[in-house]
Amino acid sequence: MSNRLRAFAFGLAGATALAAPALAVDLDVTCRCVIGGVNSGTAEWIENSVIPAFEAAHPDFNVTLNQFGGEDAQLTQQLALDFSTGAGPDVTAFDGFLIPSFVEGGLLKPLNEVAGAAVDSWTGWAALSEGSRALMEYQGAYYGIPLGTDVRMLYTRKDLLSEAGIDADNWQPTSWDDILAAARAVKQAKPDSFPIQLNAGVAMGEATTMQGYWLALLGTGEAVTDESGKFIVSSQGILDTLNLYKTIYVDEQLGDQRAQLLADGRNRSFANFRDGVTALLFEGDYFYRSVTPEGSEFAVPNRDAVLGWAKVPAKTPGSGIRGQDFVTISGGTGFVINPATDAPAEAWAFLSFMNEPEQLAAFQAIQPRITARTDVEIPNSPFLTETSQELLPLTTARPNDPNYNAVSAEIQRMTEAVVSGELSPEDAMAQYKSAVIAIVGEENTVSLL
Amino acid sequence: MTAEPTASPPKRKPRNFALLSNWAGAAFLTPAGILVSVFVIVPFFWIIFVSFTNRTLLGRTALNPEWVGLGNYLALFDPATFFQRGQFGFSLILTTQFVLASALLGQALLGLLLAWLIQTVPPAVKRITETFVIAAWILPEVVIGFAWFAFLDRDQGTLNMIIEGLGLPPGDFLLQQPFWVIVVFNTWRGAAFSMMLFSSAFSSIPPSYFQAADVAGASSWQKFRDIGLPLIRGHIVTDLILITMWTFNTFTPFLLTNGGPSYRTELVSIYNYRVAFQDFQFGKGAAVGVIMMLINLAFALIYLSIGRKKKVR
After folding, report:
1. What is the pTM of this model?
2. Which of A199, A331, A390, B213 is deepest in the core (most CB within 10 A)?
3. Using one digit for the tens of pLDDT, what is the confidence trace for A198-213?
4. Residue numbers of A between 68 and 107 with CB closer than 8 Å to B
5. What ipTM was estimated for this complex?
6. Where do the domains of chain A lie, and which CATH numbers do they carry?
7. What residues contact residue A12 under an 8 Å CB cut-off, 6+ apart?
């Protein structure tokens, strides 16, 4: 919206506020969710379950869901700018990794500071494990209520692997070479396929960093930061990771380069998997529970038979982070309250209401997932049970650092420079190094080469 | 403007023809003055001030920005990174190439050519040509952006359908030739202005000059070179400076390429947007803004000085 339009809207809002004395309290809720589109389950849940139930219990409240259909990074941009001017929705979906940078920037406040003592006396806290609460925590304060966590894995199209002569049901790669070998076999069987999807590029935002870069980097035994929290800006692990990207997208065309560069690339990667163009996809459990269920845009036909999964192997057995053979990484999302909300008590009432067991159970009925609350039953979903039990013990978390978000953007640029064939891995890393030094200062970085 | 000396005899006191007293005039000016200072002058100095800090929107320096002096400017012009892809120097050079190719060569030449050609065609053809060219100029940016995006798409784009219809291999223009895409786009978008300006300039030339040349048996090219061009030289200079400024500041290519892939179309305006509103580095973004302001100021000064010379003549 242009500034003039916005001013006009504010003017109108002001005028109507004067005309009708505040009888009903209006609450705005935002999430990157659209019924029938991205994160459809979340949108359905809020629109058809949470809001009607909440309004029935609180007749004075009028809750509106804004369904945001853009990319994650665009919602972050909008929230940051809105919060900094005291505008924006009262309650919004929020990715936990953004909390440190928002908090340090003064754009989020602890829940109990915003909504008072009601927060501390909420009975729901006891039902959240410490690990879950940490998803929306920074320096000992809680900024939101976590909805759940996730794990990342390697999805396989068993039909494509079988065609290439691989025993798809028992396929579990133990090194990057195993993955590449399988991809080459698929490519040979189907020359116009792009067997591997390892996210890269700026357009996919944090999905590039989490599902792509991190999953490879962890397999080299490194993370984005070292034990002391300094950002690693030059290392063999980064080079190995970038060379893996180069092998996949530039040297051997094992992946769909265009899907990494175009604005709607992530959807293209989903479409590739659906259409049997991609056989090996690095994604979170999100892909199973939200992208591919029956009836969604990217539903995989006959999913139970053709979709398999494998643990993401380290570069070579034992070379992963903490000496692991297999690696994964977890994040967490939830909902936060805008510190500038006009109705903090009401916003909290809504936020806690949607996180009570009844509402979460309604969500589980729409879309089973790994919940944060321990007193909510997960419906029988063998896939989720199996993956979470296998992978959660192996998992890693992103650094809880206010600069992580900015560094992550540089990671996305570094991968894009390599997969587009513009820069060599060495040059891309040199550029990453200077960019990260400019963000966090040389004293907070470390070069391992 | 009371400061203008009047043409009256030197010793007489200049008479004040104002309808209002000075005080009343000032009172009427005040609301506009306040608006202009709040929305133009204060932000102008605020930007300059912010450019000397490391202010950001997120992270620690959002609440406690530090004074870094010329730090942002030195970082922008740091020779170690200046020419790197995605850095200020790279986008400055790219913008220069973009201005040369799309404004000076593209818009001005195409505009000149169109303006010359439509001088001699039947009025109906002239009107139709003008309508189409001007339509490209007045349509809203976002509409144009989407239209071009759809036109150039590899899989469903109109252009590739035409190319395939002719039996040629389709191209992946937005990813393979992003720079030339935005050059052609901006040429197409802006040629209308040059065409109209040159067209009106040509029609101000007395027809007798051309008739005399016709009698002497001059070719169209000779008439263009020896009569048309010299007589509209002043217009050409004006046009070049204006379209240089506009092209330098244009942001619309962002709608086609997002500045990518891999910064290959990141003009300074897009670079400035990315630094300030995607990376949220307000201090550095303000520094880029100040530099852009200075460059624009230079263009404006050249433009004004030429305008003044013309008046004196």
Report:
1. 0.84
2. A199
3. 999 988 999 999 999 9
4. 73, 77, 80-81, 84, 101-102, 104-107
5. 0.82
6. 3-142+332-393 (3.40.190.10), 152-329+398-447 (3.40.190.10)
7. none
